[in-house]
Amino acid sequence: MQKVRFWRGLTSILPLALCVFALKLHASTIIPIDAPIIEDMDKVNLGKRLFGDPILFNQGGMTCLSCHNLTPDSTFDAVKGHPLTIDSVNIPTLLNTSLNFRWHWNGEFTTMESQFVGLMKKLTQEPMSSIVARLSEDIEYQREFRSIYGGITVNAITDAIIAYQKVLITPSPFDAYLKGDVNAITDQAKIGYQRFKDYGCISCHQGKNIGGNLMQKIGLINPYFTIDNELTQIDYGHFNVTGNPDDKFVFRVPSLRNVALTPPYFHNGSIERLNNAVRAIAYYQVGRIIPIEDVEYIVAFLQSLSGELPEELVP
Amino acid sequence: MKRLQRVSVFISLVGLIGVLIMSVIPQENNISKADVVASLGALQFHNASLNYEIVKLESPQFENYDYINQSIQDFRSTLNDLIALSNDLDQDTKTILGNLKQEFELKADLALSIASNTAVMQSSVQYLTTAISEIRIETTLLSKTRPESKILFEEVAKELNIIWIDVLTRYIRGNTSVGISFEKVYCNSCPFTLRKQIESVVRHLALLETRSIYQTAIRVDIKNVKLETYLEKLSANIERSLSATEDRLLLQQGVIISGAILLIVGLLTMASLVRRNRRHYILAETDLLTGLGNRIRFERILKQVKEHTDDNLQSFGLLFIDLDGFKKVNDVLGHTEGDLVLKRYAKILTQRLGYSDKIMRFGGDEFVVIVENASIEKLRALAKKLNHYGELQLKQNIKVTLSIGGALYPDDANDIASLIEMADGAMYDAKKAGKNRYKIYKDV
Known about the structure:
The structure holds two protein chains of two kinds.
Chain A: H1 2-26, H2 41-51, H3 112-124, H4 128-137, H5 139-148, H6 154-166, H7 173-178, H8 187-198, E1 215-217, H9 239-242, E2 250-252, H10 274-286, H11 292-303
Antiparallel strand pairs in A: 1-2
Helix pairs in contact in A: 2-6, 3-6, 8-11, 10-11
Chain B: H1 2-24, H2 33-56, H3 66-85, H4 91-145, H5 150-173, H6 192-224, H7 227-285, H8 295-312, E1 316-324, H9 326-333, H10 335-353, E2 359-363, E3 366-371, H11 376-389, E4 392-393, E5 399-409, H12 416-432, E6 438-440
Parallel strand pairs in B: 5-6
Antiparallel strand pairs in B: 1-3, 1-5, 2-3, 4-5
């Protein structure tokens, strides 16, 4: 008789235990990252130099850095499209970009190499060979490329640029928290993380990069594009790449790392302040009107995602 | 003999041609076999892990989608590596690789759609679990403040609950949708916030519904992607082409080695034949009894000497030597003794003149000596010397002496035939004059 009761007790406890187990697993949805191990500092330095050198563009002193601002005084602001670009999207930050799976808001490129080459072609309006030709005139670049790659080629330039981009990784206090340092983030941020999970934000913003690994339609529950927001070409998102009507308004879910430092927000940079962005995205995607105090908590959590770049990597 | 010679030449020619042709054909195929096989294995592995990730998405548990992207990226980069390697593979394999890439991109897109879909559904489930209990609390509170609408609120909450459980079970079980009607849950007399909340819930429910239908459709699509078929085809094809390459390489090496062996055998045979020929040639010119040259060599050497003399504007002499009384030796002492006498004379001539290559046995008991760079005086001195040493006293009081006739070229004659005639004539003169003496044509 007692045995039967024991088994009954166990069967009633088992689902509960499974639930607890599931909740434990829940924590692995965001994967903490480490500072990168730099394997080849020469390549990184070369890429860093190329990044800040107008020789790549040869027009009006424009460099990669004129859009992708990485200065350390906490203004990584990704501005709204450079005047020279064709579609003026909100330029994403380069920090942690190598953790993404697709590049550009519309998910146009599936590899970093194709992204670099494609973007350079679009911006310079000339083939990559002319960039090679320009670099070949510079004796110092010639020497550096020869010592690292054996010569200046399109592949070598791409590789150097990507080597630099791959080390732009910023571990944040939240990563330390996930790894077990309970005091790494504030109590508000911890509550914010809980709210972040409760409201379902985490179902898209997950993984190493807290986003950046899915394509999702903007305005899932409440339509984003209404009469107030005039539609432009960039708003069609992935549709511009595939031409498939199902892909209209589909964008890459952006990474939330350093989100507090990278206003404005959304693909068109239409929102300047972070708490507004949180409220808006919760309304459009989840259909919730989040109370102000919860927004504050979530913003505190988002602020704990900001990390700093090592001194030697800052251009 | 000639047949053997031809055969050996033929054999070595065949060998040479074989070696040449096979060396011209590129020997090593540039595919690194290990690389290709490793890439194939990696492709299969990444595909398997992609399949695993896709299956894992079926569980309603919260997950992240890094791994699915990772396997897609890994597969893509491995495939690109393989395509870069495949320049050396055959056309068939290239086509399969192209198809594989196409199918893979399809599968990758579908996998990402599934991931995005799952994320949406999970966020909806997450939302609904909290929102529905919130609505229930709200309706309880409202029915306390507005008892007249209590039944309405309760019904709305109940209906929502039923729909939610319905959707949830179907979502968990595998999405066989029959359509949901939301008419009952719209409550126009409810307060604004509640109405808004219910509206959101209904939207989420509808979204969940459509998304689960969509999810089922994608799962069917993904099962129709023939990535595995192409992978199998590719591995079979690559295996075949690699073994074909190996066979060809082996054949090529075999032909080269056998060609080389044939060449060596042919050359060796040719060398031995040439050596044998040379011996025959020498034998044909040699007088077997005395070991001196015979008449054939005499004619050849005479021609050579004449040409040499003409070129250098010199002169040469010819001494015809005949043995006096040799017939008697043969008759009285026998032919064996006669042969010995001839041998002795050959030896004497060789020793006294100091060279043998220009002394020849002309026939029977006649010897010829070619004296290069000669003059009348030299000829005379030589003939005198030979007469002096050429006296042989044999048994039974038989005595053999030499009669010598000489002629000088080009002083006496301009061509070989008349030179020989003159020397011969001079020799007969010497015989007539009483033997054991010499005559030079000038003196005659």
